[in-house]
Structures are given as structure tokens and as C-alpha cells.
Amino acid sequence: xxxxxxxxxxxxxxxxxxxxxxxxxxxxxxxxxxxxxxxxxxxxxxxxxxxxxxxxxxxxxxxxxxxxxxxxxxxxxxxxxxxxxxxxxxxxxxxxxxxxxxxxxxxxxxxxxxxxxxxxxxxxxxxxxxxxxxxxxxxxxxxxxxxxxxxxxxxxxxxxxxxxxxxxxxxxxxxxx
Length: 177
What we know:
Layout: E1 2-8, H1 28-43, E2 50-54, H2 57-70, E3 80-84, H3 92-100, E4 108-113, H4 117-125, H5 132-140, E5 147-152, E6 166-171
Parallel strand pairs: 1-4, 2-3, 2-4
Antiparallel strand pairs: 1-5, 5-6
Helix pairs in contact: 1-2, 3-4
């Protein structure tokens, strides 16, 4: 069994119009939401072995805040963190391609990326065994700092295909209020 977690970056700051989209940092709400989602991840034992993170500023900052809350002082963190420009505004097809390239030694992956790709990929992956209420919620809105958690009964990441993952958890900052 493998697990895949899709985290949309936390809320970004639009106050400086001179910044390129890629360079926008998190705003106050985003800096508050990311650790809250991480605390839930910790509670449910969702610490990934591999993190694939967009290299956009807001995605990197989201990871920094998640890592700070997900792993205690005595815990080292994931086996590996990879930052990639190719995750910036990636399409669902591109995201799926990146997942399929992951080495078989990793049983759990966290991807930190952007909409609309994250939302569409989550919807495409969700198979018939997914929790229908969670799937409905995911389809209604995939807000910033939302986390979709999937279980996959596959031997290799190269076998990931649409409709075969089981959506087992969908966390949003608002659902934690």
C-alpha cells in the first residue's frame, strides 16, 4: 500500500504588485494555515518519506511551515525533499508524470503545488472506493492549504492511474475550525 498526499500551497500575499507570481510569499492567513494542516498530518501519522515541492516562494514557505510542525525536534524529517520548477502551475498530466517517475523505495509522497492542477489531479485519481462525502467536498472547492490524502494498492509508482486511488482524507483550514 502506498500513500499520496496533495497539498495546495497556503494563501499567498498579493499586496506587492511588483512581484512576479512565482515570487509571491505567504500572507498572514497562509502562515497560520500551513502549521494547522501539519498538526493534523502529525496526528494522523501522515509524515511523508518524499516531498516534491514547487520551487515557487509560496510553496517553499508552505513546506517550511509544514515541516516545522510535522516533525518534532527529535525527528529528522522526510528521507528526501525535492524542489522543482516543473511543479509550478503544473497540469494534472505533468503531476501524474512526475509521480510515475518516483523510485519504488518511497511508500509515501507529499506534493506541494498549485491549482488548478492539484485539484484536477485529485479529482482524477479518486476511484470508486473513495469516501463519497470527502470526494464531494473536494469537488466543491480545493482551497489554499487543502490536503487530499490517497491510498493506492500498487507495487510501483509507475502504476498510478486515474480512478484507482482511494481518497481517505480531505483536510482544509476551515474544516479544522
